[in-house]
């Protein structure tokens, strides 16, 4: 494995963490949007608030991490993607602005402003992962030329990018529901636990359908990635399937123990399946990891920074976690 | 072939829109970033005082300020995310060729940003979960990572002004990167210290201005006095320091960035014995309508009226900053506001020495209320000098802005839309912070359970339940 491959793997770790934690955050926003007005809806909202309040911004640090590593370690890839897919990327950025401020404001201010702020938070939680999905789908289907400047509209409005957008939405909702099932259990609210278990199931069905549709679209629109997924990527695809079905089996029996690792495992396996399927490309069929890689010393620096970040940030996150589980001192 | 100049004019207009868009979003973010750097320190000073002398008012201030810190940090994180998108969306040419040098400092910033986010959450959770001094210490990493993050981002900006630590390969891409030289280029130190102190000025005067207004409205209890005194003292100490730091920074610019310095001081003809022009318009090779101090500019730049200063005439027309008047006036405004803030700090210092109290006249509080806005204005003016003064370069001497800008059209629309959203956001942030303040006032005795981003769930009081 070359140094550039190692940095690409670091980038992919960032993508994975963002997809899982950022995705769960987006999904929580969607469930918030769909929770309705009744007493149970309000209870669901309160649980969502409790679950994401301590971590909601920390989760989105991963997006900045991905962007910074991409432009620092693979400058031509960053520029090629940005000059082709600027429309969905700008819309995703807009969604992030509205979502973040909607959450901050509805959280900090009760009263009449809460309603609109909540809706802005919910709708942008839905649209942001959709546009990010279209970006990933467009990259996978080879719509981004090496020098950038690909078609600004047709590049991301094909079947595969749109299906990928839908898949991102469904997966985010699925992950969020799984986390919320656990949190409802921890809060001792059996009713809400069943409420989110049903939603996990619904999201799983939609995500499964989108994934199946994605495979067909992949076959016609993104042949390179399809071939990779059905050869080198097969073990990961199978692993994802086993995890996903296992999670469904647990849900059907009303068991919540082990649900989170299985659900997260299903998503992570697909993400790394794509990494394997794309290899050796950073941007399929236009830029390989080696071609896109920046200066050698910069790659070393990114690896060092990543290791330092792990050493410094993981214990801090652990402290936050311990503290958030601890009862208040009186 | 029809000889249309239309597309060319359009490309130029697109560049201008991209520059406005970048300038506006940066100008918005820098205020929030200043809070991120300095507000945690002000909050910790309050907590230190509270714990040291059992001062309940100081502890109450620290507790409330920590929630304002969280709101401002959250909005700042969002506006910072927008900036990282914009580097690619607006300036893909620069990122393509120089991303692996420009990004080096940014990669490090990620660590500090992450740490700051985590420890703000720990600090807020810790109010009820960590005992006494342990809670104070849990806040110290917030202040430290704010400083580290500022250093990293400033290093990236300084690199654009005085790029170092790389060579350009045959393919036009960056090669032989030396990360330490990239980070610690010649402008990093002075830009960082200047911005660091500026953050304390902006935060100190802005927070103090809130309490100055409250005192003008008659809320003159000890709590409000303390809420004024802590941030005001911080800013009052920072104000004279900033003039010294700024003086050093200007001499660095004089040595390393002659075109920017010439525009700042409106120097057209190179030579010694340059006058210092205060105000005025720089046009047609001369300054009009300024108050000029003979030899002043040379004296400030090199401690002697015999100091040679490079004028705009020695710089190729293509390489000159496009709007010297803007740069010159922004520089003068920044320095003028800086001295006004020192005068205010001096007024306070004299009164405090005499009678351990604020100056009695309401004009002091009125001036203090205005000082918050003045500090922000000075901050924006300073960044206008740095950024417009770098034009027409995006990476000084290596790449021009027109070669970096995106070919995508419609940036004016994006800019108009961004203006709309950000103005809305600014208004909302104001409403949120005012709402917090109002509810704090209403609950005089019992501390209400106020929610903030990152905060633990409120324990609902029975009467609050519907």
Instruction: Count the domains of chain A.
Output: 1
Q: Give the SSE order of chain B as H and E letters.
A: HHHHEEHHHHEEEEHHHEEHH
- Poorly predicted ranges of chain B (pLDDT <50, ≥5 residues)? 1-9, 458-466
Structural class of chain B: mainly alpha
Query: What number is the mean pLDDT of chain B?
Result: 84
Task: Please give the alpha-carbon distance between the first and last residues of chain A.
Answer: 54 Å
Question: How large is the share of residues in beta strands of chain A?
Answer: under 5%
Beta-strand content of chain B = under 5%
Work out the radius of gyration of chain A: 20 Å
Oligomer: heterodimer
* Average predicted confidence as pLDDT of chain A: 86
* Number of helices in the DSSP assignment of chain A: 13
- Category by helix and strand content of chain A: mainly alpha
Low-confidence stretches of chain A: none
Order of strands, widest sheet of chain A: 1-2
The run of helices and strands of chain A is: HHHHHHHHHHHEEHH
- Determine Rg of chain B (CA atoms, Å): 24 Å
The helix tally of chain B amounts to 13
DSSP E strands of chain B, number: 8
End-to-end Cα distance of chain B: 76 Å
List its traits.
heterodimer; A: 330 residues; mainly alpha; Formate dehydrogenase/DMSO reductase fold; 13 helices; B: mainly alpha; two-stranded antiparallel sheet; two-stranded antiparallel ribbon; 71% helix
Written description of the protein model:
The complex is a heterodimer of chains A (330) and B (466). Helix content of chain A is 80%, strand content 2%. Chain A is an all-alpha fold and 330 residues long. Chain A has a single domain, classed as Formate dehydrogenase/DMSO reductase fold, CATH 1.20.1630. In chain A, strands 1-2 form a two-stranded antiparallel ribbon. Chain A starts with a helix and ends in a 5-residue tail after the last helix. The mean pLDDT of chain A is 86. With 466 residues, chain B is mostly helical. In chain B, helix 3 (92-129) runs antiparallel to helix 4 (132-161), helix 4 (132-161) packs across helix 6 (188-216) and helix 7 packs across helix 10. The longest helix of chain B has 48 residues, at 6-53. The model of chain B is unreliable at 1-9 and 458-466 (pLDDT under 50). Classes of the chains: A mainly alpha (330), B mainly alpha (466). At the A-B interface, helix 2, helix 3, helix 4, helix 5 and helix 13 of A face helix 2, helix 3, strand 2 and helix 13 of B.
């Amino acid at each position: 494995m070359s140094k550039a491959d190692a940095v690409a793997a670091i980038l992919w770790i960032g993508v994975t963490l963002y997809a899982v934690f950022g995705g769960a955050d987006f999904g929580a926003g969607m469930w918030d949007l769909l929770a309705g007005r009744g007493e149970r809806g309000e209870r669901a909202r309160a649980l969502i608030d409790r679950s994401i309040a301590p971590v909601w911004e920390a989760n989105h640090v991963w997006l900045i991490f991905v962007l910074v590593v991409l432009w620092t370690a693979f400058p031509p890839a960053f520029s090629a993607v940005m000059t082709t897919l600027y429309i969905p990327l700008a819309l995703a950025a807009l969604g992030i602005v509205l979502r973040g401020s909607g959450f901050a404001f509805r959280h900090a201010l009760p009263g009449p402003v809460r309603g609109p702020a909540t809706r802005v938070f919910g709708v942008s939680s839905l649209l942001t992962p959709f546009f990010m999905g279209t970006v990933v789908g467009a990259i996978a289907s080879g719509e981004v030329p090496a020098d950038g400047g690909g078609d600004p509209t047709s590049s991301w409005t094909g079947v595969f990018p749109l299906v990928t957008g839908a898949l991102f939405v469904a997966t985010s909702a699925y992950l969020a529901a799984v986390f919320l099932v656990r949190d409802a259990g921890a809060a001792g609210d059996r009713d809400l636990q069943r409420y989110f278990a049903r939603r996990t199931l619904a999201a799983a069905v939609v995500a499964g359908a989108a994934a199946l549709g994605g495979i067909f679209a992949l076959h016609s629109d993104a042949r390179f990635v399809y071939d990779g997924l059905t050869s080198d990527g097969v073990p990961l695809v199978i692993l994802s399937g086993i995890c996903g079905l296992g999670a469904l089996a647990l849900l059907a029996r009303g068991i919540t123990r082990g649900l989170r690792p299985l659900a997260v495992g299903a998503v992570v396996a697909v993400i790394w399946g794509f990494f394997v399927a794309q290899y050796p490309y950073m941007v399929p069929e236009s830029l390989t990891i080696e071609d896109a890689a920046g200066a050698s010393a910069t790659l070393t620096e990114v690896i060092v920074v990543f290791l330092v970040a792990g050493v410094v940030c993981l214990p801090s996150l652990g402290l936050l976690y311990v503290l958030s589980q601890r009862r208040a001192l009186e | 072939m029809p000889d249309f100049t239309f597309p060319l004019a359009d490309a130029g207009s697109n560049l201008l829109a991209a520059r406005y868009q970048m300038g506006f979003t940066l100008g918005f973010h820098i205020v929030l970033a200043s809070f991120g750097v300095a507000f945690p320190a002000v909050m910790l000073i309050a907590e230190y005082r509270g714990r040291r002398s059992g001062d309940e008012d100081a502890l109450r201030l620290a507790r409330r300020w920590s929630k304002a810190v969280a709101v401002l940090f959250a909005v700042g994180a969002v506006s910072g995310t927008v900036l990282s998108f914009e580097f690619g969306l607006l300036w893909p040419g620069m990122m393509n060729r120089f991303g692996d040098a420009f990004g080096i400092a940014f990669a490090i910033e990620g660590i500090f940003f992450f740490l700051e986010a985590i420890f703000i959450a720990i600090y807020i959770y810790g109010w009820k979960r960590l005992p006494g001094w342990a809670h104070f210490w849990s806040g110290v990493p917030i202040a430290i990572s704010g400083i580290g993050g500022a250093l990293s981002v400033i290093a990236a900006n300084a690199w654009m002004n005085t790029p170092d630590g790389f060579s350009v390969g045959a393919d036009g891409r960056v090669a032989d990167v030396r990360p330490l030289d990239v980070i610690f280029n010649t402008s990093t130190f002075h830009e960082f210290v200047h911005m660091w102190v500026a953050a304390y000025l902006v935060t100190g005067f802005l927070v103090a201005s809130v309490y100055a207004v409250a005192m003008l409205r008659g809320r003159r209890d000890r709590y409000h006095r303390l809420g004024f005194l802590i941030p005001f003292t911080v800013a009052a100490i920072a104000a004279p320091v900033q003039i010294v730091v700024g003086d050093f920074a200007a001499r660095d610019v004089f040595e390393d960035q002659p075109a920017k310095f010439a525009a700042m001081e409106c120097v057209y003809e190179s030579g010694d014995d340059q006058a210092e022009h205060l105000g005025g318009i720089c046009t047609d090779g001369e300054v009009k309508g300024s108050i000029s101090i003979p030899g002043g500019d040379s004296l400030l730049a090199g401690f002697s009226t015999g100091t040679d200063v490079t004028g705009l005439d020695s710089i190729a027309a293509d390489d000159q900053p496009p709007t010297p008047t803007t740069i010159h006036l922004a520089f003068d405004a920044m320095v003028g506001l800086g001295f006004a803030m020192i005068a205010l700090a001096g007024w306070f210092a004299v009164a405090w020495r005499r009678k351990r109290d604020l100056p009695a006249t309401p004009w002091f509080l009125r001036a203090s209320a205005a000082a918050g806005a003045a500090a922000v204005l000075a901050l924006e003016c300073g960044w206008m000098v740095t950024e417009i003064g770098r034009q027409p370069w995006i990476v000084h001497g290596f790449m021009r802005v027109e070669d970096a800008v995106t070919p995508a059209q419609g940036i004016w629309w994006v800019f108009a839309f961004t203006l709309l959203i950000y103005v809305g956001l600014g208004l909302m942030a104001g409403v949120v912070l005012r709402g917090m303040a109002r509810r704090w006032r209403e609950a005089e005795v019992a501390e209400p359970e106020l929610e903030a981003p990152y905060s633990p769930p409120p324990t609902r009081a029975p009467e609050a339940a519907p």
